[in-house]
Amino acid sequence: MELRPAALAALCIADPRAKCEAVHRLWVDRDRLEVGPAALARELAEPAGAPGRPALPRLVPPGAVPQRSPFTREGRAALLHAIAHIEFNAINLALDAVWRFAGLPAAYYLDWLRVADEEATHHWLVADHLATLGHAYGDFGAHDGLWSMAVKTRADFTARMALVPRTLEARGLDVTPGIQAKLKQAGDPAAVSVLDVILRDEVGHVAIGNHWYRWACEREGRDPMAGYAELAARYAAPRLKPPFNREARRRAGFTAAEMDWLDGLDSRERLEAAQPDGR
């Protein structure tokens, strides 16, 4: 079995549990998958209806996603549902990275298959904990921000590496500690432990994105920092906002120069917040 068509088949599975199980099987059987140059270079046609998704959750604009206090049972369920949705999308993003881009090194495809496997574990963990609160994935509305960036960058490998793992997923490194603090205050240590697993693994996922983004920049003769700013503007990437989890970002491979740039963003954000009317 060839790796890339197998990843595409998993991407098209709509049922979350079945998708997770298919991804886990692919990862366990990775040594049996064909990753030779001819197989990796083959152009694949995108089927209609990809990615596979369940009928629920209903997709709504970001502002319509429930924002409830984690200090109530229902609010905590809404928060965990949002995380389960992020992790489900992350499975699809990793599988899409495997099948869509042809002719790259075998290590690239195995890196993203590993990411898909870990994201499947994350979704499963969050969905199982959500069940202890009397809810299931699909019970709340959710937005499509992560996948919309995948659509924007479907024809641009370098932009995909720049703007999904090292922008959107890196944001998870920044916000997860604050979410954990609230869940701890709310008396939900099991949820905190689940997010410990997610944060640990996401550092590695962002590191993979950093590695392949810089690999792509070197191949193209592009300066990574200048190239990032240009790609972020071209594809209307979300604005990076503090607070930044600097330690996690360093472990994920952000350079000292990139951290200095983030420090500059943080300073500007603080200055704007301190001035009346943002002026």
Number of helices: 11
Helix content: 55-70%
In angstroms, what is the radius of gyration? 19 Å
Beta-strand share of residues = under 5%
Task: Label the overall shape.
Answer: globular
Low-pLDDT residue intervals, each spanning 5 or more residues:
none
Order of helices and strands: HHHHHHHHHHH
Q: Major beta sheet, specifics?
A: none
Q: pLDDT average, as an integer?
A: 93
Number of domains: 1
| Gap between N and C termini | 59 Å
Task: Find the structural class using helix and strand composition.
Answer: mainly alpha
Task: Please sum up the structure shown.
This protein is 67% helix and 0% strand. With 279 residues, it is an all-alpha fold. It starts with a helix and ends in a 5-residue tail after the last helix.
